[in-house]
Design a protein that fits this description.
With about 260 residues, the chain is an alpha+beta fold. The chain is built from eight helices and four strands. InterPro entries: ArsR-like_HTH, WH-like_DNA-bd_sf, WH_DNA-bd_sf.
Length: about 260
């Protein structure tokens, strides 16, 4: 069983999003089980569970783990093909995000489009590597930093961009024989402070910033085009000037700003 795998087929995505089938996937990710074993856990008749399992199996979301003979009956124990699943934007190919439509390094929505392309591309690479039985050369870095101020965050972004751009200029060899292009994605965003999946998590983190900070998080109005960004390999972006935060009420600490 894989720790995580990608769903690219629209029909498979629809099957996985069915609440009952999603519950069955979660149960089978914990360990193999038969329809009879699952029926008691999800509160459905065994025949109905079998119906859902066949749909999941048809789309490669579950697979046969083993068969057991019980008298004249063969019991099939199924297991999930992965512990968790990610739905690729390819499942909504006609409306999938395209980060090339606009570029704004300070837009949260552009960051979201980049993230969607990352899921799509890496998912396709994983699928291809699995079929070819080859390892996929990737690298990821994940960390967290607490900025004392918006000015510190802006300085961090400038230094980060300058450093990554310098590395790109140093190692980029587009004319090298046998060379292969690799995509580099660098992102900075506020940490979610509420439990994942809660409706108020994003709003709460935006509201924690000052008015000036929240303004920069929002997308530009329809009548004002987004500020164009520079390419990562040229020069670091410069954040718009920030207004000083309002003085907090007496006895209350100043709210932490986020972007």
């Amino acid at each position: 069983m894989w720790d995580v795998t990608v769903i690219e087929d629209p029909e498979a995505a629809a099957v996985s999003l069915d609440p009952v089938r999603a519950r069955l996937l979660a149960e089978l990710a914990a360990g193999p089980a038969s329809a009879a074993m699952l029926a008691g856990k999800v509160g459905l008749p065994r025949q109905k569970v079998n119906y859902h399992l066949k749909a999941l199996e048809q789309h490669g979301l579950v697979e046969l783990a083993e068969e057991r003979r019980k008298g004249n009956v063969t019991e099939r124990l199924m297991r999930a093909t992965a512990a968790s699943y990610v739905i690729s934007p390819l499942a909504l190919a006609a409306v999938q995000p395209d980060p090339d439509r606009f570029r704004d390094q300070l837009s949260a929505r552009w960051l979201l489009a980049l993230g969607a392309r990352l899921v799509r591309d890496v998912g396709s690479l994983i699928t291809g590597a699995a079929k070819a039985r080859r390892r996929l050369a990737t690298y990821a870095l994940d960390g967290e930093v607490t900025f004392a101020s918006a000015a510190d965050r802006a300085a961090f972004v400038r230094e980060l961009t300058a450093g990554v751009s310098a590395l790109i200029r140093k190692y980029d060899a587009p004319d090298a024989e046998g060379g292969r292009a690799h995509r580099v994605v660098v992102a900075v965003h506020p940490t979610i402070t509420r439990p994942a999946g809660t409706a108020a998590e994003g709003a709460a983190d935006v509201e924690a910033g000052t008015g000036a900070e929240a303004g920069r998080l929002a997308d530009p109005p329809a009548d004002r085009p987004a500020r164009p960004s520079t390419d990562l390999s040229t020069e670091p972006p410069t954040e718009p000037p920030t207004e000083p935060p309002a003085e907090p009420p007496a006895g209350k600490p100043a709210p932490e700003s986020h972007q």
